[in-house]
Specification:
By secondary structure, the protein is of the alpha+beta class. Helix content is about 20%, strand content about 30%. Strands 3-4-2-1-5-6-8-7 form an eight-stranded mixed β-sheet, with helices on both faces.
Length: about 425
C-alpha cells in the first residue's frame, strides 16, 4: 500500500507494476544485467518521485533535465499525461541525442530525443513560461560549477506557479557517515572515459538544498529525506541503534535521498550561499538583457558598487568608486537603454557612461553618453546605443564625480 503525505496525489500504480514495466525494456545482453540492477535498486526512488509529480492538465508540458538513460522518462509516459521535453546536461558536438527503446512483450516502441545543453553555462532552448513543471532528478550532484545557473533557467521556462521536482542523494546519509568512520572515501572515483559530469562531483546536505532553492526564489511545497535501498530495512541491530542515537543527539536526518517539490516564485534571485560558493563576489556571468537589483546584480555588476540597500522601499546599489562596471546582453531591435537611477545629492550632477562590446579587447570601440541627474529623487534616463546592437553583450562603465548615485535597474527598449 502506498502511503501519501499531505499535499501529495493518489497513485494508481504498485511497486510491482513499475518493476515489471522497467524489466520489460529490451537491452543488448551486455547491458541487460546492469539495466535490471538499476531498475531494482532504484524502485523506491522512482515510485516516490512519481508520487510527487502533480496530475497533468490537458496540454501541460513537462521538462525533464537529465533524462538519459530514459528510465524515468518511460515511467512519466506510462503513468502521467504530460507532453515531455528532454534535456541532458552536457554540451557536445551534437545538438541532440536520439534513442529508440523497445518493450517487445508489451508491444511498445518509444523514440526519445534529448536536447544537449550545458545547463551551467548555456540557456535552455525553450521560450519563457513554456512548462507546467520540471523534473531535475539525480542531476544536482553531477554539476561542477554553478547549479544556480541551472535553477535560473528552470525558473525562466516554468509557467508562473509551475512545479519543480528535484531529487538528489543526501551526503550526510548514515551509510556515508559509517563509511567515513571505517576510512572509506564517500566521493566517487575520477571519470576518465565519460567526462566530469558523469560522476557525483558535489553531494548536498538537506540544509544546503533547502537554502539553495529558497534563496533562489522557489517556494518549498514538499521536503523529505528517505531511504531508497531496500537493504536499509535490514540493517544490523548495531547500525539501527547507532542511527537512532545519531538522530537523537544531533537532530539531523541521516536517510539516503532528498526529495523536493517546489513552486516557481514570482522572481528569481541569483543567490550564492557562502556555505556552497567561494569568491562569489568575483563571479561574472552575463546571462540576461537586463539588470535588476536584488535579482541578478550579483552576477552582472562588476567592481565599483556598494552593497545593496533599500531606499523608499526599492532596492538599489550605489556607485562606490570613480568607475563602476555593469554588463548585460543586447536585445535585437531594442537600441534604447533605460536606466532607473537614484540621485542622492541635493545638487544636480552629470553621469557619464562609457559603453563597449563585451567581450571586447582594449581596441574595442567605446561609445560615451552623458546623463544629467536632477536634485534628490528617483528618475528614469535613457540613451540610444545603436552602435552596439551587433555585439552579443555590452560592458558599461559608470563614471561619476562622487558617490551617492544609485542604480535600481537597466533594460532595453525600442
Amino acid at each position: 500500500m502506498l502511503v501519501l503525505r499531505r499535499g501529495e496525489h493518489v497513485a494508481f500504480w504498485s511497486d510491482e507494476e513499475i518493476r515489471s514495466y522497467l524489466l520489460a525494456v529490451e537491452k543488448p545482453p551486455i547491458e541487460k544485467a546492469d539495466w535490471d540492477l538499476w531498475a531494482e535498486g532504484n524502485l523506491r526512488r522512482f515510485r516516490r518521485t512519481l508520487e510527487l509529480v502533480p496530475p497533468a492538465r490537458p496540454g501541460d508540458r513537462c521538462l525533464e533535465i537529465g533524462s538519459m538513460p530514459y528510465t524515468f522518462t518511460l515511467l512519466m509516459k506510462r503513468f502521467h499525461g504530460y507532453a515531455l521535453s528532454l534535456v541532458d546536461f552536457f554540451a557536445g558536438a551534437r545538438q541532440q541525442h536520439r534513442e529508440v527503446i523497445r518493450l517487445p512483450s508489451r508491444g511498445e516502441t518509444h523514440e526519445f530525443v534529448s536536447e544537449l545543453c550545458d545547463v551551467e553555462r548555456e540557456d535552455l532552448p525553450f521560450r519563457e513560461e513554456t512548462f507546467a513543471g520540471a523534473l531535475c532528478c539525480e542531476v544536482l550532484e553531477h554539476l561542477t560549477t554553478d547549479p544556480v545557473a541551472m535553477l535560473a533557467e528552470i525558473h525562466r521556462v516554468l509557467q508562473p506557479g509551475g512545479w519543480l521536482v528535484l531529487t538528489t542523494p543526501n551526503v550526510a546519509s548514515f551509510e556515508n557517515v559509517v563509511g567515513l568512520v571505517h576510512g572509506r572515501n564517500i566521493y566517487r572515483p575520477y571519470e576518465l572515459a565519460f567526462g566530469p559530469t558523469w560522476r557525483h562531483n558535489r553531494e548536498y546536505t538537506p540544509g544546503e538544498v533547502r537554502e539553495l532553492l529558497t534563496g533562489c526564489g522557489f517556494a518549498l511545497e514538499h521536503f523529505s529525506i528517505e531511504d531508497i535501498d531496500p537493504r536499509s530495512d535490514r540493517r544490523p541491530p548495531g547500525h539501527r541503534i547507532l542511527h537512532w542515537l545519531m538522530r537523537l543527539r544531533y537532530g539531523l536526518e541521516y536517510r539516503e535521498q532528498i526529495y523536493v517539490r517546489a513552486r516557481r516564485g514570482s522572481r528569481f534571485r541569483w543567490h550564492y550561499p557562502p556555505s556552497l560558493f567561494h569568491h562569489a563576489e568575483m563571479h561574472l556571468s552575463v546571462r540576461r538583457p537586463y539588470i535588476r537589483i536584488g535579482e541578478n546584480d550579483s552576477i552582472q555588476l562588476g567592481p565599483g558598487w556598494a552593497p545593496a540597500e533599500t531606499v523608499e522601499g526599492h532596492p538599489l546599489r550605489r556607485i562606490d568608486a570613480p568607475a563602476a562596471m555593469a554588463y548585460l546582453r543586447t536585445q535585437p531591435g531594442s537600441p534604447r537603454l533605460v536606466l532607473e537611477l537614484y540621485q542622492g545629492a541635493p545638487t544636480a550632477r552629470l553621469l557619464s557612461l562609457a559603453v563597449r562590446p563585451h567581450p571586447g579587447k582594449g581596441s574595442a570601440p567605446v561609445t560615451v553618453r552623458e546623463i544629467s541627474l536632477e536634485l534628490t529623487c528617483w528618475q528614469a534616463a535613457s540613451v540610444l546605443l545603436p552602435e552596439v546592437q551587433a555585439a552579443p553583450a555590452i560592458a558599461i562603465e559608470f563614471q561619476a564625480p562622487a558617490s551617492g548615485i544609485g542604480l535600481r535597474g537597466i533594460q532595453w527598449a525600442k
